[in-house]
């Protein structure tokens, strides 16, 4: 059994779920429970409002519908899991996991979706197909935010034939989506460790979550222009030998054959070459060989504690366990529950 009790951590509003009950002595569990009641629910995460099987009574087929539609598309397109996983991240980091990333811009509002970092976001059509199907089955019941959370999990899990992590449901949809917030809240691939850690802390996530969730870069691709200053213009000299010294020179040379100029914004490169559609712990092996693609990846080796965790996450079992916990915390960022927000009729537009 997995029971999550959210308590106020020692570091301000940082919230964490407890480990498996079985691992815990009953006495200490009761103590934790008492502490949790004493400090009240974690207001910032509001994760207490999420629960396993939220739609069990109101839309029993909800989770199965997500699984089958996402499964159908992901089996036909091995790049889809990366798209859906990134979509979930971008949703959660801007205004919480409220499906604000799915909203289209209107005449008087430029939405998150139309911010620079959205480059190559995809999977919107799959989410909308699930939504349409669920609106027919159980009108006005299942949120787009929950569909995004489930779709990320289901698509990444497909290759394993079992679900990699549990998703609690009960998220509701937001009504606001601003390009400016995407620009300020989404981490940049050019950021250093302290900036990244600060941004994660701002979302109630720990440095360890930064290291573990970056492991998502074990699947998918990156566009050349987002890292090619590491190849051609690292110190600003814009010369043939101006590569990032923290990047393996042989790998830099290989990347230069693919990314021919600083301006190339159309070519993509696998972030974990060799297994870029396999969700595994190989991202960390790559990092250690100084073959992380972005400055933000390489940054994980620049902090002692983080570098140590990289070493631990090389082990697949450790990575999968840690990822389960970190993505669960990510999926609880700023969620709207209860009567907050709405259940959107169509994921790309707020209800009128
Ligand atoms: C630590 C901060 C992070 C930064 C700076 C970052 C940055 C980026 C960038 C620049 C790309 C390439 C986009 C493109 O060129 O099309 C990318 C791709 C991706 N990111 Fe991250 N990311 C971060 C964390 C995360 C997290 C937490 C997740 C999910 C849990 C994630 C999942 C992905 C995936 C799956 C892709 C591949 C997308 C594709 O193949 O289209 N990233 N990321
Ligand atoms: C990280 O980047 C920020 C913003 O660019 C900068 O102010 C800071 O000095 C950098 N930190 C380190 C340790 O390089
Ligand atoms: C190279 O980097 C410098 C310093 O960051 C920048 O001013 C310059 O515009 C860059 N050159 C190109 C061609 O992008
Ligand atoms: C790519 O670069 C070209 C030329 O610099 C620019 O016109 C275009 O808008 C860019 N495309 C994207 C997706 O950023
Ligand atoms: C997928 C998507 O919505 N991409 C948009 C990202 O933002 C640019 C503008 O910055 C739009 O042109 C894209 O359509």
TrEMBL record:
It comes from the Eukaryota. Removal of H(2)O(2), oxidation of toxic reductants, biosynthesis and degradation of lignin, suberization, auxin catabolism, response to environmental stresses such as wounding, pathogen attack and oxidative stress. These functions might be dependent on each isozyme/isoform in each plant tissue. Belongs to the peroxidase family. Classical plant (class III) peroxidase subfamily. Belongs to the peroxidase family. Ascorbate peroxidase subfamily. It is found in: Secreted. Its EC number is 1.11.1.7. Heme b binds at residue 217. This is Peroxidase. Keywords: Calcium, Disulfide bond, Glycoprotein, Heme, Hydrogen peroxide, Iron, Metal-binding, Oxidoreductase, Peroxidase, Secreted, Signal. Ca(2+) 1 binds at residues 91, 94, 96, 98, 100, 112. The keyword Glycoprotein applies. The lineage of its organism: Eukaryota, Viridiplantae, Streptophyta, Embryophyta, Tracheophyta. The active site is at residue 90. Its cofactor is Ca(2+); heme b. Binds 2 calcium ions per subunit. Binds 1 heme b (iron(II)-protoporphyrin IX) group per subunit.
């Amino acid at each position: 059994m997995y029971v999550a009790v959210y308590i106020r951590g020692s570091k301000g509003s940082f919230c964490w779920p407890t480990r498996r009950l079985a691992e815990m002595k009953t006495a200490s569990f009761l103590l934790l429970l008492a502490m949790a009641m004493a400090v009240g629910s974690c207001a910032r995460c509001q994760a207490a409002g999420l629960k396993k099987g939220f739609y069990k009574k109101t839309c029993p087929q909800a989770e199965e519908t997500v699984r089958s539609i996402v499964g159908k598309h992901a089996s036909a397109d091995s790049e889809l899991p990366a798209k859906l996983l990134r979509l979930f991240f971008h949703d959660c980091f801007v205004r919480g996991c409220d499906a604000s990333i799915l909203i289209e811009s209107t005449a008087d509002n430029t939405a998150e979706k139309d911010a620079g970092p959205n480059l190559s976001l995809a999977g919107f059509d799959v989410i909308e197909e699930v939504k349409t199907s669920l609106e027919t089955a159980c009108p006005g019941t299942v949120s787009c935010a929950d569909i995004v959370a489930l779709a990320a999990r289901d698509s990444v899990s497909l290759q394993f034939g079992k679900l990699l992590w549990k998703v609690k449901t009960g998220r509701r949809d937001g009504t606001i989506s601003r390009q400016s917030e995407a620009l300020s809240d989404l981490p940049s691939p050019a950021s250093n460790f302290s900036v990244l850690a600060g941004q994660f802390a701002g979302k109630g996530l720990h440095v360890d979550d930064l290291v573990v969730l970056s492991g998502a870069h074990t699947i998918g691709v990156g566009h050349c222009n987002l890292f090619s200053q590491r190849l051609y213009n690292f110190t600003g000299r814009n010369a043939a030998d101006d590569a990032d010294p923290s990047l393996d020179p042989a790998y830099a040379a290989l990347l230069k054959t693919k990314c021919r100029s600083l301006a190339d914004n159309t070519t993509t490169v696998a972030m974990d070459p060799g297994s870029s559609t396999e969700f595994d712990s190989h991202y960390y092996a790559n990092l250690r060989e100084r073959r992380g693609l972005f400055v933000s990846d390489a940054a994980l080796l620049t902090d002692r504690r983080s570098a140590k965790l990289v070493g631990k996450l090389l082990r697949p079992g450790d990575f999968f366990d840690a990822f389960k916990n970190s993505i669960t915390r990510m999926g609880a960022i700023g969620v709207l529950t209860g009567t907050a927000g709405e259940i959107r009729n169509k994921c790309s537009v707020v209800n009128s």
